Amino acid sequence: MGSIPREWVGFQQFPSTTQTKLVELFGKLKEEGLSTLTILVLGKGGVGKSSTVNSLIGERVVNVNSFSAEAPRPVMVSRTRSGFTLNIIDTPGLVEGGYVSYQSLELIKRFLLNKTIDVLLYVDRLDAYRVDDLDKQIVTAISDSFGKEIWRKSLLVLTHAQLCPPDDLSYDDFSARRSEYVLKTIRAGSRMRKRDFEDSVIPVGLVENSGRCNKNDLDEKVLPNGTAWIPSLVKEIIGVATNGNKSITVDKKLIDGSEANDRGKMFIPLILGAQWLFVKWIQRAIKDDIAKGGKGL
Description:
It is a single chain. This protein has 9 helices and 11 strands. It is of the alpha/beta class and 297 residues long. The strands form 3 sheets. The protein has a 7-stranded mixed sheet, with helices on both faces. Strands 5-6 form a two-stranded antiparallel sheet. A two-stranded antiparallel sheet has the order 7-11. It starts with 5 loop residues before the first strand and ends with a helix.
């Protein structure tokens, strides 16, 4: 199900300035004793998950086609460089026919068995203007599947970031406002208490995967505010990986159901036993009553 790590040849496709920044950033992980980083990419279909994976790897590792459905199964792309391994897991969209696809979530969970997720990239589009109840349902479904702790290891990624905002807003104001709405939806959908949510602030990364993305003098792809987005996104990813919160290990218990369900299962024999004793007690009481009634006649 996974893939054998291959040499990260796509790294050489990045401009030299980006390469230098990435070497420095991944060096920080190695200083922390981390030689592997595993990233899970989740979101609706058509928001740019696969394109973002390709951009981060620097190779076309996942097929992207505007006119056909996404890959029906999860896929893990692994690359190694200088003793460091990067794993990125691309996944099918979490919506089908206007509803949350629990089938896709089950598929993803089973694919992830015995893997540890260091960072979740929750992907949506910057150029979408509103959030609705479906967005909240998606977040709830992710929380129910992996535990709401996964949001402590998450990064919100907004794609299609090379846009002209409405006339009355600057680019930074528009992106901040859009991010704020999605983050509020994540808090509501994950059912995290406000204080807990604020204690582990979810950072935001802006992405423009299009080949028409503007470039700076150093040949780096830049957003309208001048940010070279690939090293900026990787910096946010490293920040989440090293934020002190525990990575999410997908074990059999997580796949089969929550601990709460397991605790509930433990009490089932006790409840059934108590019911059986109660029924026996009622039966005996009825027999005693009948016997007493017989004597009185």
